[in-house]
Amino acid sequence: MQYRYSLPSLLLALMLVLALAGCEQESENTALASPQPITDGDACHVCGMTITNFTGPKGQAFMKSDPEALKFCSTLELFTFLKQPENETQISHAYVHDIGETSWQKPSDNAYIRAVDAWYVVGHDQPGAMGHTLASFAEQNQAENFSGEHGGKVIRFEDIDLELLGELGRGEMNASQDHEKG
Question: b/e map of 68-100 (b: 16 or more CB within 10 Å)?
């Protein structure tokens, strides 16, 4: 038995095979890297200080071009990096500790959540690395409970901008103040 294929049929078949291969490769590339453990020797990507020397929630960011995590000694340092215009388009995803599931004093590597999904408390009274940091929670009610106990305001990922980060970094917010955009 002899098969005869026309050139257009072969080209169509080839394009279909390439398209399916491209879809498979794209889905492999869109799988998100998991958070990585923070070890004793890990240094903060922003300040270079040893991450394990500090209390409070930490963060990790993954760039689109690198499977290795960039690690941060606090959520404030993480967001300072994430919100820089030159970094925003290069970020694949980021993680923060869920303080509702781990201790403030020594956050567990098993308690990471996606940064975009978290609830945050700013202006609270708990110290983090080099000053104030954003308390991060998976559940809104846990963030509200923390705010009720430690002060501050509950916000979402979308509410975090360079203006807010500057206020936090300069110590302009405390447990009795709220961030108000003008």
Answer: ebbbbbbbbbbbbbbbeeeeeeebeebbbbbbb
CA-closest candidate to residue 36, choices 74, 72, 87, 81: 72
pTM: 0.79
What is the structure's pLDDT at 7?
Answer: 56
- Distance in angstroms (rounded) separating the CA atoms of residues 54 and 81: 18
Calculate the average pLDDT of the chain.
86
Secondary structure of 107-144 as H, E, C letters? CCCCCEEEHHHCEEEECCCCCECCECCCEEECCHHHHH
pLDDT value of residue 177: 47
Residue 73 pLDDT class (50, 70, 90 cuts): very high
| Strand 135-137 relative to strand 112-114, pairing | unpaired
**End-to-end alpha-carbon separation of the chain, Å?**
79
* Side-chain half-sphere CA neighbours of 104 within 13 A: 13
Helix, strand, coil abundance in the chain, percent, nearest 5: 35, 20, 45
